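Lab meeting notes turned into a lecture example. A postdoc, R.K., suggested we walk through two folding results consecutively so the class can see how the record format repeats. The first protein's sequence and structure tokens come next.
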Amino acid sequence: QVQLVESGGGLVQAGGSLRLSCAASGVIVRISAMGWYRQAPGKQRELVARIFSAGTTNYADSVKGRFTISRDNAKNTVYLQMDSLKPEDTAVYYCNFGGEYGSWGQGTQVTVSS
């Protein structure tokens, strides 16, 4: 059974940084495609970033150059480093394995104040 536990969310001022963590069990992140999604109030959930088994990554246009997805194979954990945060980044952030119909964490709230 896959379990994903996110942490690291919080309240930050615009221009600040946060690092989200996703501790995984039941899946080996080193050989899996893992992703971060977010959902803002009144909006659909959207893909933020993904990392693939080969280490390649892709990002939503809205976060390119500001967010970085990475993983620690020894800790079986995926990270999302978020820099230069904007109020429009405010959302609940979810870790994902397996795409839309895969496994999801419980989410962590990120709030960026202006």
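The second example is placed directly after the first for contrast:
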Amino acid sequence: VQLQASGGGLVQPGGSLRLSCADSGSGFSIATMGWYRQAPGKTRELVAQITSGGSTNFGNSVKGRFTISRDNAKNTVYLQMNSLKPEDTAVYYCNKWINLRGNAWGQGTQVTVSS
């Protein structure tokens, strides 16, 4: 598996989690890395992206609560999720995009926000 996501789990509303995605492939430092999520019965949506230059982009529903970062030395991208809400419950997928090479997806990690 090229992209290995971890860090999901069960958390109470208002809590925090940090997801990690380790890339065992090549080209991590030039890739745009992203996190997407898919809740049951819904389409997959963008959560956050970070470009190779460090620019970030967030889905409207997570702005101000989630942050994304990357460590090129470790080939890892992180998603820090704070002030979690029940509507954040979903499977979270790591994505890697490199121009002219296309997309790669991780296997997903479940995040459940519930009391």
